């Protein structure tokens, strides 16, 4: 999907379901950003491989938790509202959510 497609979809939609938790998501993503900087520093300082891998695992879990939260919000708001309305938009939202979940599972 191109960024133009994503932008068009964003303008067509209602506000994202995660807006009520926006600050929490931003806080968590800033923490992940800090973890990434810490990993860079650990490699630069040539720290022990297992210690770096432990931090990679923690960062991966943190990102997975953000992703799972966003999936839950999407299902509870965007998909639920589209299904309630019905029609092709409902089918598209369910398919879109399913594809997003599949991408998360494969990662």
TrEMBL record:
<feature type="compositionally biased region" description="Basic and acidic residues">
    <location>
        <begin position="1"/>
        <end position="11"/>
    </location>
</feature>
<comment type="similarity">
    <text>Belongs to the CsoR family.</text>
</comment>
<keyword id="KW-0186">Copper</keyword>
<protein>
    <submittedName>
        <fullName>Metal-sensitive transcriptional regulator</fullName>
    </submittedName>
</protein>
<dbReference type="Pfam" id="PF02583">
    <property type="entry name" value="Trns_repr_metal"/>
</dbReference>
<dbReference type="InterPro" id="IPR003735">
    <property type="entry name" value="Metal_Tscrpt_repr"/>
</dbReference>
<feature type="region of interest" description="Disordered">
    <location>
        <begin position="1"/>
        <end position="22"/>
    </location>
</feature>
<dbReference type="InterPro" id="IPR038390">
    <property type="entry name" value="Metal_Tscrpt_repr_sf"/>
</dbReference>
């Amino acid at each position: 999907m191109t960024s133009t497609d994503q932008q068009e979809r964003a303008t067509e939609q209602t506000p994202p379901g995660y807006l009520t938790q926006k600050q929490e998501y931003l806080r968590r993503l800033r923490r992940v950003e800090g973890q990434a900087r810490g990993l860079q520093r650990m490699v630069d300082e040539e720290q022990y491989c297992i210690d770096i891998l432990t931090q990679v695992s923690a960062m991966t879990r943190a990102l997975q938790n953000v992703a799972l939260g966003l999936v839950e919000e999407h299902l509870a708001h965007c998909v639920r509202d589209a299904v309630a309305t019905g029609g092709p938009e409902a089918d598209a939202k369910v398919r879109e959510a399913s594809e997003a979940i599949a991408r998360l599972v494969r990662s």
